Amino acid sequence: MINTKKIISDIFNIKNEEQFNRTALKIFDFQYTRNSVYNDYIKHLKINKTHINHYSQIPFLPIDFFKTHLILSSDKPVQTTFKSSGTTGLQTSSHHIIDLNVYEKSFIKTFNIYYGNPEKYTFLALLPSYSERNDSSLIYMTEKLMKISNKKNNGFYLYNYEELYHKLNELEQKKEKTLLIGVSFALSDFFELYKIELTHTQIIETGGMKGRKKEIVREELHQIIKKASKIKEVHSEYGMTELLSQAYAKKSNRYQTPPWMKILIRDTNDPFNNLKVGTSGGINIIDLANFYSCSFIETKDLGKLNPDGTFEISGRFDNSDIRGCNLMVI
């Protein structure tokens, strides 16, 4: 009988490559046995499970399966279902969550790694509120961080640009440490309308042009923001509905992952061939926090790994839909 509590504890206490590999193999075995869709997929590929002894050999489930199948590695009741926003008329992904505590532990621990205690910050969000999108993993995360912060000025400001402008001015005058989190199209709209010098505010864009306006490359968006706000760096969050972990970039397009998340790059012509550091290809993600669904996901994003362990996003595969939580950069 597998000790799920022990494995989940191990996930968030990974310190080195050996621990990551050992935990990843245990989770692969767990999901191969209990996830019927993943099991069928591996058998269809005629892959012998007994030959897998390193995480780099584990098969990755194409992300589109989250649009068409129930991806679960447990028969426990589903607590909630996160759905991708997608583009009107396109089929969206559903991620069924067995244990919200695992998700909360993942994003709070990751936030602590890269930004410190959420209690230090006031959170302003250029996002829909939870009441408008209660099936969004991003909004769930943002609202929980606000609750931990417990600052009276926390709030959602999507489309309330004038109100946000006045709130930013107020917090700047008070020298209050602030995080402004927003989807790309809203940040672009806001900073094209308003010029405000920010010295106590950090901006995190989460992607998501979603066809709302002409898609722009991330670097262009960051330049618009930096010119209007005088901040030195715009940070980015890389996450998606199908994951329970996030990567953050504090320098343009140089993303870092928490210890339980790993990026591999596959050959675009041979999805079972992993590429060397510095070579561009398709992004495969290991997210061990996805314990109760699938931790091994083949995405439609393109990018590369850097020698320092960071990774970059360079675009999307041709003919793939625009992901709600990512900026379209092809």
In short:
This protein is an alpha/beta fold and 330 residues long.
What structural class do helix, strand and pairing data support? alpha/beta
Helix content: 25-40%
Percentage of residues in strands: 15-25%
CATH superfamily: ANL, N-terminal domain
Reading off the top of the CATH hierarchy, the class is best stated as Alpha Beta
Read across the widest sheet, the strand sequence of neighbours is 5-4-6-7-8-9-10
Query: The CATH topology, please?
Result: Rossmann fold
Note poorly predicted spans.
319-330
Distance between the termini: 47 Å
How many domains would you count in the coordinates? 1
Written overview of the protein:
- The protein has 330 residues and is of the alpha/beta class.
- The protein has one domain (1-51, 62-330): ANL, N-terminal domain (Rossmann fold, 3-Layer(aba) Sandwich).
- 31% of the residues lie in helices and 20% in strands.
- Strands 5-4-6-7-8-9-10 form a seven-stranded mixed beta sheet. Strands 1, 11, 12, 13 and 14 form a five-stranded mixed beta sheet that branches.
- α9 links the parallel β7 (201-205) and β8.
- α2 crosses α3 and α8 packs parallel to α9.
- The longest helix has 18 residues, at 17-34.
